[in-house]
Amino acid sequence: MFPLRDSERTQGTPVITVALILANLLVFFYEISLDEYSLNHFLAQWGALPRKFEVVDLLTSMFLHGGWMHVLGNVWFLWIFGDNIEDILGPSKFLFFYLLSGLAGGLAHVFFNPDSAVPAIGASGAISGVMGAYLVSFPKARIHTLLFFFVFATTMEVPAILMIGYWFIVQLFSGFGTLAASGTQQGGTAWFAHIGGFVAGIILIRLMPSRPRWRIRQESQW
């Protein structure tokens, strides 16, 4: 299932969401301008290497990506769901929320892969946090989704709780399935960054106060 748009409208321009999308794209454009040796050095230097753990690397790794599908998928999910969470929190708190979710996702990846020598990269932990926050904030929202059936494709409106819930179950089974098979995660998708970021997003959106205009709008709908 691939989300195309959601049913929840927002007020104003999602400044931080747009800025984060641009930052991710600009860093990726810089990456693809490098030759192979320089790129590998750049990713090793700024990615999050579990067995040589440094907190600052968890922050810088959020803006690195491994290919076009990686970066475009991440920024698209951020565009679909991020504006709604920024609408709830406001720009400054949303940026704080995003970075904390990314840190939580990175820490979860390091915890389950402490000896890994493969640098973890990508905004997936932070964006997973946004999805977790969206799930608890808009469980009745409808997501206009692209569905694939073998060689056929169609679109359908799917409840947010179904689409995001299904996505999270896939992350759980994939992450723990990988651990059960090999005892550690060897490169590839950082499943536990997704899981950790998602759980952090659910917790943080409940702890961080929403801005007054969003509360007033919600009360008027009740």
Question: Could you explain how this protein is built, in words?
Answer:
With 222 residues, the chain is mostly helical. The protein has a single domain, classed as Rhomboid-like (Rhomboid-like fold), CATH 1.20.1540. It has nine helices and three strands, in the order βααααααββααα. It has helices at residues 15-32, 36-46, 55-61, 68-89, 91-112, 124-137, 160-182, 191-207, 212-221, and strands at 2-6, 142-149, 152-159. The chain has a three-stranded antiparallel β-sheet with strand order 1-2-3. A hairpin with a 2-residue loop joins strand 2 (142-149) and strand 3. The longest helix has 23 residues, at 160-182. It is globular. The two termini are 31 Å apart.
Tell me the major beta sheet: 3 strands, antiparallel
CATH class: Mainly Alpha
CATH architecture annotation: Up-down Bundle
Q: Give the termini separation.
A: 31 Å
| Largest beta sheet: strand ordering | 1-2-3
How much of the residues is beta strand, in percent?
5-15%
> Helix tally?
9
Based on CA inertia axes, which overall geometry fits? globular
DSSP summary, beta strand count: 3
> What Rg is obtained from the alpha carbons, in whole angstroms?
18 Å
Stretches where pLDDT is under 50 for at least 5 consecutive residues are none
Structural class from helices and strands?
Answer: mainly alpha
Order of helices and strands: EHHHHHHEEHHH
